Structure formats: structure tokens, C-alpha cells
Amino acid sequence: MPYKEKPLIVAASQMGPLPAFLFSNPVFAGFFAMLMCPVFGAVFALFQASIGTVNALILFEASRLGAIVGAVIGAFVFIIIAVSAFSHRDEMKYRLLFVFGGVLGIVFLVILDRFTLEYLRDWFATAGPLV
Q1: Exposure of 128 by Cβ count < 10 A (0-12 exposed, 13-18 middle, 19+ buried)?
Q2: Per-domain residue ranges of the chain
Q3: What is the pLDDT of residues 62-96, one digit of tens each?
Q4: Which of 21, 37, 89, 95 could form a disulfide with 85 if both were Cys (CB 3.0 to 4.6 A apart)?
């Protein structure tokens, strides 16, 4: 093992578990999962739209569209989870709490989009081209 890689190997061997609050509370887990769907969609769309020199407003609109598509895909997944809760009676409570957290995430995203869209669109319109 080269001396340069030793700190990385030591750090990777001492990794702890993920924070328990992500999984111990099904409402928070559903909320966090719903927030991550638009993030992944926005990042994917951002990488696809950033080929060459483009305007910042185009990147913003592409990322927003990717986030909307990610949120819609996440909503469909949450609908499937809600329907599957009725076939698994022993996990029904936890699945519905998870879906409730996802619904809270969707509401949060809609409110966030509603209140920040015009400000962000104006800001990106004045940002100009990105190189």
C-alpha cells in the first residue's frame, strides 16, 4: 500500500453507518426520499443541457424541468408504495407513514417552486452565458 493511499484506506475502513434518523422515522425517510428524486432529475438534466456554451437561463429551465420530471417519477413510486401497503397488512402503517412523508415532500417542493420561481428566473436571466 503506497503511503499516499493510507489515509483513504484508514478512513474507508472506519466508516460508520448512515445516520439513524434517516431510517428510524418513516415520515422523515419519505420526505427525504421525495426531495432526492428532483435533485437527481435536476442534476441529470443539468449535465445533459450543459454541453457547449449555453445561457444560464437555459440551464436553469433544463434543471427545473429535470426536477419536475424527477418529482413526477417519485410521485408515481410513492403511489405504487401506497397501493402495495394494502397487500402487506403487517407493514401497512409504516408504508403509509413513508408515503405521508413523500406527500409532505411534494407539498414542500410545490411551495418552494411557487415562491422562488420568479426570483430565480430573473436572477438567471441576468447571469448571461456560462463558459
Answers
A1: exposed
A2: 26-130
A3: 999 999 999 999 999 999 999 999 898 888 999 99
A4: 95
pLDDT at 89: 86
Mean pLDDT for 2-22 is: 70
CA separation (Å) from 119 to 37, 64, 102, 106, 124?
Answer: 23, 14, 26, 21, 9
CA distances from 76 to 28, 53, 68, 86, 100 (A): 19, 34, 12, 16, 14
Mean pLDDT on 87-114: 93
Exposure of 105 in the CB half-sphere (CA atoms within 13 A): 28
